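Board notes (copied after class):
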Amino acid sequence: VQLVESGGGLVQPGGSLRLSCEASGIVFSVYATNWYRQAPGKQRELVAGISSGGNINYIDSVRGRFTISRDNAKNMVFLQMNSLEPEDTAVYFCHVQSGFSRRFWGQGTQVTVSS
């Protein structure tokens, strides 16, 4: 199983980035897909998730600014991030889960919001 993230980088406050995660080695359509982030000195937190059935949730701090989506035909999940703030600076991780024991993580991609 492999999850490969891309799309991170340095952006100014108010800017946008689109993260992508491509999965291989799993039946992607049956997995819930999530984006987590971890800022320096903080715990990893769930940012957004989309279930295999298409149900979506966000943490309050990103709702209205971030959009999660998935393309099962391409085994990919995306996170469109708009109106980025310095507080969004973190390493962002792709995560997929099916049931209790089948959980996989990507390697992470750095997002830095700074002027």
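Comment from the instructor: The two ends are 37 Å apart (CA to CA). Residues 36 and 45 are 5 Å apart (CA to CA).
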